[in-house]
Write the structure tokens for this entry.
Amino acid sequence: MYILGIDFGTKKLGIAILEDSSEIISPLPLVKNDQFLWQSLGKIIADYRLQHVIIGLPSYENTAKKVKTFTETLQKRFSVTTTYVNEDNTSLSIKKDLITHKQQQNLDSYSAIAILEQWLTQTR
């Protein structure tokens, strides 16, 4: 079974995938938060046959509202279950660990990895 991790952003979403049986987490390419967002997410959800999504939820209210609205739409469109994980400072904490320019360009997907790792720690 695969589980999707999302680091929500108003311009782009960081995406990572967890293979639950092996606990291997891999970054996926960023998804633009544009008119093709739901089509892009639908393809990922279908390709991996996803049923559960872990979403980073910040403590600051303005962005948290946007994340919750996004999550409600995601649940309705794709009939997936969702779980929130506190994502405060996720990007800042992993930025120092990213060595290559390519990794730094994909910072949001590495943040999604951190979100999945935090969820694994809390559930195991």
